[in-house]
Amino acid sequence: MKEYKLYINGEWIEADQEEKIEVINPATGEIVGTVPNAKEAETKKAIDAAYKAFEEWSILPANKRARYLNKLFQLMLENQKDIAETLTKEQGKPLKEAIGEVRYAASYVEWYAEEAKRNYGETIPAFRKNTKILVLRQPVGVVAAITPWNFPAAMITRKIAPALAAGCTVVLKPAEQTPLTAMKIIELIEKAGFPKGVVNIVTGDPVIIGKTIMEDNRVRKIAFTGSTEVGKILMKQSADTIKRVSLELGGHAPFIVFDDADLDKAVKGVFASKLLNCGQICMASNRFYVHEDVVGAFVEKLKDKLKRCKIGNGLEEDVTIGPLIDKNSFEKVSRHVQDAVEKGATIEAGGEGFHQGNNEDAGYFYAPTILSNVGENMCVMYEETFGPVIPIITFKTEEEVIKASNNTNYGLAAYVFTESLSRGLRVSEKLEYGIVGLNDGSPSEVQAPFGGWKESGIGREGGHHGMDAFLETKYLSIGL
């Protein structure tokens, strides 16, 4: 077990009150590390450091900022197993998935090291003689990055890498359940030689830290991934200082299987979009609309594939399904399954979970569960489950399934399986979602814009689009 400190202005320091947060392994209930329980004073110190460092970092030539990011990228690859083991211990996902996440996280650092050098402006023809119009893009300022527990490595780099590439400085607030992965990345940032104050981390009470960040007008940008409920609070709080906000929020993704779909491909898509990280993914497929002519064959193929799943501690060999993050998550999944059964659903596979260990807050597992005969009145069809539950409802027509899929306030991701290119494109365009996986269960890529419509968020992360949120546009009119 390692006891971490805060990293502020290039130094590792204790919180003023020396209070600690214990980080628990969700598979075993064991304490795997501690971090300081920072509050207002420490958060202000981090903002002070970032604000002071911004003056020099923002004018550092882009190729030099890129060198720092490239060094961090190399260090993340060299230390990927160490980071991944920490990630599995505090978050629970199988080690193979954790290694994949660390590589994915590193790819954002590499990508934005390259994008740092491509922050192009414009020259626009003027309508007045002897006048030139220039458009410049300059860093927005201090950025607060607030990240979730389900992807504790990737959600950090997806935010701070473009911020740093743009010339912004950062105050990072990781989720209190999974701060150790963030600490590992910060250690590598220090090792890469980033100047003091460019990246700072505070761990602790999310309400106090969040309030301090939102009230400080020196913080010009908030990059947040988390629940829609918290995202709405941050939007309201941002109004007083007119902060920029990027919000990647909840989802309730439809997974549509047409009668001409390649069912093997669709089943593979279920595993990628639903069972990764035990279903604890914002873009996880939640509502499974399967054409009535193929539902029987689809369910049988899915049941057969589920037989090869192994549930357990993510550090154990061949485990494919890890634990749920805590007791509350387990109770929510159990409640959703029970509600569906009480309203007429049939359990085709799974349907139960278990608890192991002596810690009442951890050690909760739930078997991948298939539900058939599902109705729209069941909780699984209108609430985000965030667990390994696959509720299947049948449909007849294209129009019917599009209407049902769009009948939600969320709009992050959707999945469509059909061998008809015309149908696939037609349906994808009609779906009210920011991301559509057409015959693809894992459409998240570093070079593509990630984000949702409606109450699933504002802004895009990834690709060249991800730089926009961290840059201000300045119009310069020059009289000659």
TrEMBL record:
Annotated family: Belongs to the aldehyde dehydrogenase family.
Record-level GO BP terms: aldehyde metabolic process; gamma-aminobutyric acid catabolic process
Organism: Crassaminicella thermophila
Pfam short name (any one): Aldedh
Entry keyword set: Oxidoreductase
Signal peptide region: none
Name recorded for this polypeptide: Aldehyde dehydrogenase
Residues annotated as domain Aldehyde dehydrogenase: 12-475
Record: active site: 248, 282
A GO molecular function held by the record: succinate-semialdehyde dehydrogenase (NAD+) activity
